[in-house]
Each structure stands twice: as structure tokens, then as C-alpha cells.
Amino acid sequence: MKNKLFLFMLVAVIGILAACGATEKETSTGSSSDTTSENSKVLRVGTSADYAPFEYVDTKVSEEIIGFDIDLAKEVADRLGYELQFTNGDFNSLIPALQADKFDFVISGMTPTEERDKVVDFSTPYYETEQYTVSLKKNNIKSMEDLKGKTVGAQTASIQEDLAKTFAPEHGFTVESRDLIPQLIQELKNGRLDAAIIENIVSENYLSQNDDLAAFPVEVEEPDYKAIAFQEGSELKPEFDKVIQELIDEGKIEELKEKWFVVE
């Protein structure tokens, strides 16, 4: 009887241990599944959705981020088999967040600069751009010389901010920065800024909607380009470079320009 009882208890203990092992295996599988989910080709994308027509939110339609850059990123991702998860943030926070591994890449109308290139890697350029100086028509600002003694705005951490600071000593104006492009436009209208340096296609959208605004191009020695920013050494860069070049060669970039760069 004792032997039978011992055997019964031994079988029970083995059963309990087996169940625990199965539970641990299920938990491990669940963890593995989570890892698989994390690695299921979903890329985290940082952008600053205040830069129409590159990236913005049309609140009259939805809360979805749309624009030229967004379509471009989706086109590249589709061809490579990735899904994208976009996060909206201030432009000046994007590169630090990328460095902190909060994003897999950043697409936000960003221009490669020597300073940025020290901390991130950039894709093949996909768009060449120009800069405008925007002001109220009534201020009659038509050249850089007219900015003497004035206050000129630019977006924080942008190449426009760098450009304004470069020209400021020569032309005798003060530079003030704002986080968002709409803030620059509002500051022009309320008189806190006399002018603002903003990218041409972005400027043209505001000019088309505001009859009281005027602009002239800023002459620079080197053209400005837009590119996608990656973490240094990212394996995504060569993949994206290949597809971006394909899109350029196929004329797909031009199609996106025709879709998004129409000033109404």
C-alpha cells in the first residue's frame, strides 16, 4: 500500500513538474511571439507634421498624417515589405529621438548638413529645394538689404535657421526661432517677426492662402536636398537607397511632386 501511495505521489509530482515546464514553455513562446511581432517588419518613423505639403494633418478630413514624404516613405516600405508606424513630434526633437532608438528612421523634409551627418546617416537625396524669405506685403521687403534692423524668424533646428544666422551679420538683422512653421506665419501677422525664411514649396502654399504675404528667393551657393535620416550604421540605409533610386529612375518621385506640390 505504501509503495502504491509512493508511486501515486511520484506520478503526481512528475505531472506537476511537467505542467510547470509546459507553462514556462508557453510563456517563452509568448515572449518569442512578442519578439517576432516586434521584428515583423514594422518600422517606427519620426516626423514633424507641420510642414505641408511634405507632412501635415488636414484636420478637416482626419487626424492622419499625410503628404509627399509620407507617400514616399510608404512607397519605399511597400516595396521592401515593411509596415510603418508614424509618430508626430517637434522637428528639433527628431534627431535626438532617432539617436535614442525611439525611431528606425526620420522623414520630415530634412536636409543633410555637416552637423547632422556627424550623428546620423542620410539616404540618397530625393528632392532638391530652395528657400524663400516671407513677409507681409505692407512691409515692402523685397531683398536681403531690406532686412537691416529687422527680426527674421526660422524653424528651430532647421537649415533655414542656419541660413538666417549666416546672413544675419552681413545684413544686420536679428534671428528668432519658433518650433513650428504655423507659428512663424502667425508671428508675421501679429508683427512680432518682420520676415521668415521658409522653404519655397511650403511658402507657396501659405502665399496662395494669404493675400497679405509676399516672398523672394534666398540666393545660396550650394543647393539644398532632402533625405531620410537613419541611425548611424543602420542596415536600412542601403535598402532604402536602392529603392529611392529606383523611384527616381521610374519617375515615381515626379508623380508624387505632381500630386502634392500643386498650389491651389
E-strand count: 15
Number of helices: 9
Low-confidence parts, pLDDT < 50 over ≥5 residues? 1-38
Radius of gyration from the alpha-carbon trace, in angstroms? 26 Å
* Count of spatially separate domains: 2
CATH topology of the largest domain: D-Maltodextrin-Binding Protein, domain 2
Main structural class: alpha/beta
* Biggest β-sheet description: 5 strands, mixed
Shape: globular
Fourth CATH level, the homologous superfamily of the largest domain: Periplasmic binding protein-like II
The share of residues in helices is: 40-55%
Identify the strand order in the major beta sheet.
5-1-6-15-7
Average residue-wise pLDDT: 87
Describe the protein's topology.
Blueprint: H1 2-38, E1 42-47, E2 50-51, E3 55-57, E4 65-66, H2 68-80, E5 83-88, H3 94-99, E6 105-106, H4 114-117, E7 120-122, E8 127-129, E9 131-136, E10 151-155, H5 159-171, E11 174-178, H6 181-189, E12 195-199, H7 200-209, E13 213-218, E14 224-226, E15 229-231, H8 236-250, H9 252-260
Parallel strand pairs: 1-5, 1-6, 10-11, 10-12
Antiparallel strand pairs: 2-3, 3-4, 6-15, 7-15, 8-14, 9-12, 9-13
Helix pairs in contact: 2-8
Structure description:
By secondary structure, this protein is of the alpha/beta class. It has two domains: 42-128 and 224-260, D-Maltodextrin-Binding Protein, domain 2 (3-Layer(aba) Sandwich); 131-218, D-Maltodextrin-Binding Protein, domain 2. The chain has nine helices and 15 strands. The chain has a five-stranded mixed β-sheet with strand order 5-1-6-15-7. Strands 11-10-12-9-13 form a five-stranded mixed β-sheet, with helices on both faces. Helix 2 packs across helix 8.
